[in-house]
Design a protein that fits this description.
Blueprint (H helix, E strand, L loop, with lengths): L6 H26 E10 L10 E4 L6 E3 L5 E7 L1 E7 L7 E7 L3 E2 L2 E3 L18 H4 L5 E4 L1 H4 L11 H5 L5 E3 L7 E3 L7 E5 L2 E2 L4 E2 L4 E2 L6 E7 L13 E7 L8 E7 L2 E9 L5 E10 L1 H7 L8 E15 L4 E16 L3 E17 L4 E18 L5 E21 L2 E21 L5 E4 L3 E15 L4 E15 L2 E6 L5 E7 L4 E19 L2 E12 L1 E4 L10 E4 L7 E14 L4 E18 L15 E17 L4 E16 L8 E2 L6 E10 L4 E10 L3 E2 L4 E5 L2 E5 L6 E2 L3 E14 L4 E9 L9 E6 L7 E6 L5 E9 L1
Parallel strand pairs: 1-7, 1-8, 12-17
Antiparallel strand pairs: 1-4, 2-3, 2-5, 5-6, 9-16, 10-11, 12-13, 14-15, 16-17, 18-19, 18-51, 19-20, 20-21, 21-22, 22-23, 23-24, 24-25, 25-26, 26-27, 26-28, 28-29, 29-32, 30-31, 32-33, 33-36, 34-35, 36-37, 37-38, 38-39, 39-40, 39-41, 41-42, 42-47, 43-46, 44-45, 47-48, 48-51, 49-50
Length: 782
Amino acid sequence: MTLHFNSTQRVRFIFFSGLILFFLFSNFTNAQTYKIKGVVYDSRTKESLIGVPIIVKNNQGRGVASDEKGDYTLTLPKGNYTLQIEYIGYEKKEIEISLSKDMRQEIELKQSAIGLKEIVVSGERADANVSSPQTGVERLEIEKINKLPVLLGERDIIKTIQLTPGVQGAGEGSSGFYVRGGSADQNMILLDNVPLYNASHLMGFFSTFNSDVLRDVTLYKGAMPSPYGERLASVLDVQQRNGDNQDYHVSGGIGLISSKLNVEGPIQKGKSSFLIGARRTYADAMARLSGAKDAQNAYLYFYDLNAKVHFSLSDKDQLSFSGYLGRDKMVLKDAAEINWGNMFGNLKWNRVINSKWNSGTSVFYNQYNYYFGMEIGMDMNGRAKIKDYGVRQEFIFQPNKNSLWKMGLSSTYHDIGPGDYELNAEQNNSLNLLHRYSSENAIYASNEIKLSDKLEIIYGLRLSAFMALGKGEFYNLDEENNVTDSVWYKGGKVVKTYVNLEPRLSAAYKLNKVSSVKAAYARTVQNMHLLTYAAQGTPFDRWTSSSNNIKPQVADQVSIGYFRNFSNNMFEFSVETYYKDMRNQIDYKDNANFQTYNAVETELLYGKGRAYGLELMFKKKLGRLTGWVGYTLSKSEKKIDGINEDKWYNAYQDRTHDLSIVGVYELNRKWTLSAAWVYYTGNAITYPSGKYQINGKDVMYYAERNGYRMPDYHRLDLGATCLLKKTSKFESELAFSLYNAYGRENAYMIRFRTNNDDTSKTSAYQYSLFRFVPSITWNFKF
């Protein structure tokens, strides 16, 4: 009998036949192989370890590395095996396994007693620079950060990431940063998965992060994975450590202007732990004690508090609560006061469902607020606040050793209070700006899959939905951005909804064992926008959200790069190029008023942007001398109707050249030396092109937006760490640093005014912050 099929039937037959063969093959494979799952952790602290290689001995080097949570999964046929674990700073270990069913095997590693000064925990495999399909990612090692020279003795992860290609500091005296041509507000900064709206202290001289309580720091600047979103340029994901659930420890540091203290230990030994870290500056108190006259009526300080408690409820359930509280205060008695700060709490539950499925659930509350008051000539004060309420659910599914799925959803409710102002309170003159409410939601899925020995990809999709909500007054504008009428919406009423698909794709093709080519594409969307005149940003900048008039910012980025390792992964080299197309970019019109105006949309203009560049990195990872050289060649521009005659103009963060050279040298077991040299092209800026007189007064004339440049910036920092004592129960060290070692007076700002001797001329005045800044800090742990 002969069967005859038309074309449609043939397609269906082939498809269903292939599907049946796939399931038959899958069932056959699953019947012959089993999974070994578990977690790798430190035997003393019980802290999970990242990037630990687990090798199947005498099996052609087959193995895996523990992930960012310390988890690992091996898939092997039935049989007897020996797992071999070698990890820097820990004793070598071998485990005999008889595999006849899916099983769980915890791996406990004991710290090596001799030969090591420090234990470096890294969130990546030794050859991840070549093998990982994730592009545009930087993972920072906390121990390496702690060896670099620092400003005023305070170690800072944000200052460290600014030394890597594609990341540029916002300027001296600022903790803001720019990533691949994006503005400072286009970076999502997360602490334990909670967003921070201002990650700086003392107007940017310090960052929010206390490095002593941190576990893992990862920056995504390229095709960020689909679980991340809500910002256009990058995600900085910072995770706090769990406390030691076996023993109590106290650590800290005492410096010239700041000190910190950290305490950790078990709540119930082996099952639960706590970690508390506190910092405070006291430069103003030291100045008053010295008798400085100008300091007697001034207060300038910050404090912050990190806390985390962790419970192992069972072999499958982990529960943790983390929190943060930080505050800055600047007071001049009988004149002015300003203060600002962050506060959040996050509850997270992780559960191992079975050998293939894991679940993570978290809820959080976050608040950022600021206050200012003045008593000079008038009694005036103002305050603003942002509150977030969020929930997140994620599932991790690993069907086999070559495939890893992440799926989840998130939802955040925003309450933005842009400002309440009082002028001469006794006269009851006040202005209360309308709150803006919104709901930001997303559902996502991503798959990291190894298609062959040469090709690995990560593909994913994120569906975001942003809803601008009442209660409040919303405005209709004409073509000139003037208000024509307004509509009042009740609380919870949907004013406008924006839905966006955000595809993500990243791939790595290994040319051989030591080199690869990577390519990536990502679309990102941003609905929270920062409005500021200050190029470097201040704590008092105004945040607003997408509305019926303000559209979400959208960016499409493509990148491609070549990656190469040398000398058994001792050296790394990479070159990566990118192009980013941005839409619905926001800039202010001339003489805009953001702070005390409800219809803020009338002060804004919209258009498009583009950023492109080339990034080079050469890194030495092992040996007594380690460090890197990073270089970025880039361009960032905007084109907005109504600005610069509707032509392309430089974004403020545009910098042609950016170069960093970093070195750390272990002189001996006692001394470690470090140095960092940075150079970059001055920021684009708007200077007056001329001046004219009105009623006898000089008025500056401004033509091209950002048509001039600040002077080029360069600086050398030096550092040294002296290990005073190290035993099993106590260790201490002295950390020395010299910021701006050759005393260059880099420009912080430049101001113009009429020359006193010749009124036909205009003089420029440059202001600088720092020349030589030495510091010394004593760090201890017991």
